[in-house]
Write a structure and sequence with these properties.
By secondary structure, this protein is an all-beta fold. It is 0% helix and 48% strand. It is built from no helices and eleven strands. The strands form two sheets. Strands 2, 4, 5, 6, 9, 10 and 11 form a seven-stranded mixed β-sheet that branches. A four-stranded antiparallel β-sheet has the order 1-3-8-7, with no helix packed on it. It is globular, with a radius of gyration of 13 Å. The protein starts with a strand and ends with a strand.
Length: 122
């Protein structure tokens, strides 16, 4: 499965962006999909994930501001980011977990998209 992440950009603090993660196959609908981010000099950080049944889980730092959703007809998972803060600046990655049990550990994910850069100005 190939994943294509898009939607990053430059936004002012308090603004919004929506990232997309499109898969090359419709099997994405059966996978757990996670979003991660990595800022320069930092380790890759789990942002949240959505199970194949639609259940969502979020890191405390983004809960209430970010929402993950999926459109199985489009083989796409979204990350809606509202009330963005400068500390949200990072490369954002989507990843698919075939087993369905993946959570916060990047090693639990089998397929990765390329990063899309999000920059939030103060």
């Amino acid at each position: 499965v190939q994943l294509q992440a898009s939607g990053g950009g430059l936004v002012q603090g308090g603004g919004s962006l929506r990232l997309s993660c499109q898969a090359s196959e419709d099997t994405l609908r059966t996978y757990n999909v996670g979003w991660f981010r990595q800022a320069p000099g930092n380790e890759r950080e789990w942002v949240g994930n959505i199970g194949w049944r639609g259940g969502t889980y979020y890191a405390g730092s983004v809960k209430g501001r970010f929402t993950i959703s999926r459109d199985n007809a489009k083989n796409t998972v979204y990350l809606q980011m509202n009330n963005l803060k400068p500390e949200d600046t990072a490369f954002y990655y989507c990843a698919a977990d075939v087993s369905g049990y993946g959570g916060t550990n990047p090693e639990e994910y089998d397929y990765w998209g390329q990063g899309t850069k999000v920059t939030v100005s103060s």
